[in-house]
Amino acid sequence: MPFVPILHAELLKIGTLRSLYGALVALLAVSTAFSALAGASDASDPGSDALFMAFSGVLPGQIAAIAFGATAASAEYQAGALRLSLAAVPRRGRWFAAKAVAVGAPVFLAGLVTAGASLAAARAGLGAAAEGLTAAQQTRAVVGCGIYLTLMALLATGLATLLRSGVAALSVLIPFVLVVSFVVGDTTGAVTDFLPDKAGQVVLHQSWDGRLGPWTGLAVTAVWAAAALVAGAWSVRRRDA
């Protein structure tokens, strides 16, 4: 079966899960709300990174993107759905590739909308601090934000497929993103610079001190996501449905 019909089928399946719509709405609402609050509360701080402050709502909001990827993957392990999917598409690698694209495409589009809304909401509170942001910096952050959220969703998709459980994947990723990143904070070093979330978030900063830049940081996150997807593909190909 050609790839396009498989992708269309996977997009239709994702469209039937109401919880996934809720995840995208939560991504937009949470990110925008927290960015607006951060912009208003730090408007008088001249030493803050205005660009990262504008996108700080993405840090809690990314949980929704992670949940989207994990839920979309784990739905295949409920009520024998995976058996039906593989019966229709015996080439398991092609099917899983379509699943990954079907997850990534809506998250990327929602991520762009979220990034634009977060930036607009935060600028209203940042006031004069936002005037130092160039068009190139803002464009880079908006596009980078969409890519970053997509990669985190794909990381969750691969992990949920490997573990065959959305709950298990979320139990690993959410504490990692919330606890590890909080403990690490702004520390830079050989290890922390290459964590998937810390590396990808460099694209949201106006300036950076670590060894990774905006695009190299996203490349590191992409490696993490690719590794998870490869592991998920291995699970689909080698294990019984």
Please supply descriptive tags for the structure shown above.
mainly alpha, single chain, 241 residues, elongated, 75% helix
What share of residues is helical? over 70%
Low-confidence stretches: none
- Whole-number mean pLDDT: 89
End-to-end separation in angstroms reads 19 Å
Short description:
The chain is mainly α and 241 residues long. The protein has 10 helices and no strands. The chain starts with a helix and ends with a helix.
Topology diagram in text:
Elements: H1 3-15, H2 18-41, H3 50-54, H4 58-74, H5 81-88, H6 92-126, H7 135-163, H8 166-184, H9 196-200, H10 214-238
How would you characterize the overall build of this protein?
With 241 residues, the protein is mainly α. It contains ten helices and no strands. It has helices at residues 3-15, 18-41, 50-54, 58-74, 81-88, 92-126, 135-163, 166-184, 196-200, 214-238. It is elongated, with a radius of gyration of 18 Å. It starts with a helix and ends with a helix. 47% of the residues are buried.
